[in-house]
Design goal:
By secondary structure, this protein is mainly beta. The chain has two helices and nine strands, in the order ββββββββαβα. It has a single domain, classed as L,D-transpeptidase catalytic domain-like. The strands form two sheets. The protein has a five-stranded mixed sheet with strand order 3-2-1-9-4, with no helix packed on it. Strands 5-6-7-8 form a four-stranded mixed sheet, covered by helices on one side. The mean pLDDT is 90.
């Protein structure tokens, strides 16, 4: 799944095995609450849930909303979900609190197509995905990722450096 926030109309392009399945009109995070650009992964799916920020001391806005077809992509709360209240904005402008809003019909269809672990690539939002906010390993190059390994990475074609024996 890919979303280019600079594109017009604003759509999520859903692909499987390199073939385009569907283009879904979406609304992302408004200017004061931008969605993250980067490679995220679906980390949780809930057919029905409640978004409740009343007890979150870090919440910039307090709300309680029943949500259908929620697919979490960050630990801080970005989801792909049904948003019947924003259908008139989907494909046109960003009005969410950072989530990917879509119509109930499209959210249900997408929910039935995806699995935990499916990647979502979002670009041009103005807000870079914070490493560690979700399963973000895919947002780094392999070389950068390998720097954090306990096993030294030797690129192919390079000779390994021998280590002296004790």
């Amino acid at each position: 799944m890919t979303i280019d926030d600079a594109a017009s109309p604003k759509v999520m392009i859903v692909t499987k095995d390199g073939q385009e399945l569907k283009r879904i009109p979406v609304s992302l995070g408004k200017d004061t609450w931008q969605s993250s650009s980067g490679v995220t992964v679906i980390i949780e799916k809930k057919e029905k849930t409640v978004f409740d920020t009343r007890n979150d001391p870090n919440a910039r806005e307090k709300y309680v909303v029943d949500i259908d077809y929620a697919q979490r992509i960050t630990w801080k709360g970005e989801h792909i979900h049904s948003a019947p209240w924003s259908v008139q904005h989907q494909g046109v402008r960003n009005v969410s609190h950072g989530c990917v809003n879509m119509s109930p019909e499209n959210a249900k269809w997408l929910f039935e197509q995806t699995m935990v672990g499916d990647p979502v690539i979002t670009t041009n939002t103005g807000q870079q995905l914070e490493y560690g906010d979700g399963w973000t390993d895919w947002s780094r190059s392999f070389e950068e990722y390998a720097k954090g390994s306990a096993i030294p990475y030797v690129p192919s074609g390079s000779a390994p450096t021998p280590t002296p024996t004790p």
